């Protein structure tokens, strides 16, 4: 007679429904997984919500479900797989997980140790859970995709425009760009988001609902060397083509819904790159271990007081009702910083 599997609590769904629907997210029980290979089993202490959550929730999913979302977690390792070399049970960790595996909105979560970092010692679990996805996205965009040097002396007189700077990724990108010695210009439109962007390091702020070039010229800029666009690629494309410097670089993270006129950038020889922080884990790239190293370096920067978290709201416990609330706020498009959830009971 087979042994009945041990169960764990989770928040999941069976089909896409508007977040207001009572079954859009459900409190469920699923079998507790066991680690194999280089996987570690993490007891989830805290998670954070991201724009990726409602986006993936709207996908047509294969199989019968339930489907579990969530790509930001901080917790404690309960078990390690037989091939693990980086961690051991009891270690406190944080990470963003993989898009092709079940998410972390569950009591326990399996993850490849190569995309996991040691939790900053100066942070509690909730604050630590706010960092991985946004920081990996910002870090890879600035330093891997745009090729910006991390040495401040290399970036004298160089500028970056961060479009949508008040959100989770923008909140970290502002800080990393300042650490790299760039002149940082953020976009924001409301008094509270403008204040947030300035607090996190933007030397200048412009409104993303108005033409960029006249605003930048009033500040003394005819162009910017780099652009990091965090929302509405279609909406901002024309403005970006006007203000990017000759031989400048643009990084995008939001898919365009209609064709964009790349030819507008030809005369300037502008580079356009994409960033998705799930690329390494989705394709098991040769450099997948870089996310482990990146998160460990982030922990050092946080513990040294050089990077602060962007938590603006904490919810408890982790359950369907609170995750619905977090998703609804993210879908409003007006969130500042990060929403975190902690404790399953």
UniProtKB/TrEMBL annotation:
<dbReference type="InterPro" id="IPR014182">
    <property type="entry name" value="ADH_Zn_typ-1"/>
</dbReference>
<protein>
    <recommendedName>
        <fullName>Zinc-type alcohol dehydrogenase-like protein</fullName>
    </recommendedName>
</protein>
<comment type="similarity">
    <text>Belongs to the zinc-containing alcohol dehydrogenase family. Quinone oxidoreductase subfamily.</text>
</comment>
<dbReference type="GO" id="GO:0003723">
    <property type="term" value="F:RNA binding"/>
</dbReference>
<dbReference type="InterPro" id="IPR036291">
    <property type="entry name" value="NAD(P)-bd_dom_sf"/>
</dbReference>
<comment type="subunit">
    <text>Homotetramer.</text>
</comment>
<dbReference type="Pfam" id="PF08240">
    <property type="entry name" value="ADH_N"/>
</dbReference>
<keyword id="KW-0963">Cytoplasm</keyword>
<dbReference type="GO" id="GO:0008270">
    <property type="term" value="F:zinc ion binding"/>
</dbReference>
<keyword id="KW-0521">NADP</keyword>
<dbReference type="InterPro" id="IPR020843">
    <property type="entry name" value="ER"/>
</dbReference>
<dbReference type="Pfam" id="PF13602">
    <property type="entry name" value="ADH_zinc_N_2"/>
</dbReference>
<keyword id="KW-0694">RNA-binding</keyword>
<feature type="domain" description="Enoyl reductase (ER)">
    <location>
        <begin position="20"/>
        <end position="341"/>
    </location>
</feature>
<keyword id="KW-0862">Zinc</keyword>
<dbReference type="InterPro" id="IPR051603">
    <property type="entry name" value="Zinc-ADH_QOR/CCCR"/>
</dbReference>
<dbReference type="GO" id="GO:0005737">
    <property type="term" value="C:cytoplasm"/>
</dbReference>
<dbReference type="InterPro" id="IPR011032">
    <property type="entry name" value="GroES-like_sf"/>
</dbReference>
<keyword id="KW-0560">Oxidoreductase</keyword>
<keyword id="KW-0479">Metal-binding</keyword>
<dbReference type="InterPro" id="IPR013154">
    <property type="entry name" value="ADH-like_N"/>
</dbReference>
<dbReference type="InterPro" id="IPR002364">
    <property type="entry name" value="Quin_OxRdtase/zeta-crystal_CS"/>
</dbReference>
<dbReference type="GO" id="GO:0016491">
    <property type="term" value="F:oxidoreductase activity"/>
</dbReference>
